[in-house]
Amino acid sequence: MKSVVVFRIDRRSGVATYLQIVRQVEQALRMGALEEGDRLPTAAQVAADTKVNPNTTLKAYRELERAGLAEVRQGAGTFITRSLARPQSAPDSPLRASLAEWMDRARAEGLSGQDVSDLFHSAFGAAYPGEAFGTGYAGKPEG
């Protein structure tokens, strides 16, 4: 069993650290980077890599367990119990390939990462009115 997730914590984001961990696991599950049976890094490993208090990681893992995405096995670690991946988001999917081509065009046209992000958020708002982008966790916006 592998552990393929490396957490990136943005202390300036205003998003609670444990939620950042939960969301990154959910994203890895949606993208197929984590699969059923994969082992998450230990709280001590996450603390060493990110300088996050181990209790914060344990809180995130408990939340993932509550959501039915992970299982804590005493003495063995925390393991993924189900996937959120969809065929449309697989690395070799036509939809993802089309998005990658669009990103290449945007870069070639001189758009910065922030320009692309702003454009995407604008298009997302038009396509999904009333839905908050980037809430990720249980579909609830922060507040």
Automatic annotation (TrEMBL):
This is GntR family transcriptional regulator. PANTHER family: GNTR-FAMILY TRANSCRIPTIONAL REGULATOR (PTHR38445:SF7), HTH-TYPE TRANSCRIPTIONAL REPRESSOR YTRA (PTHR38445). Keywords: DNA-binding, Transcription, Transcription regulation. The keyword Protease does not apply. Residues 15-83 form the HTH gntR-type domain. Pfam families: GntR (PF00392).
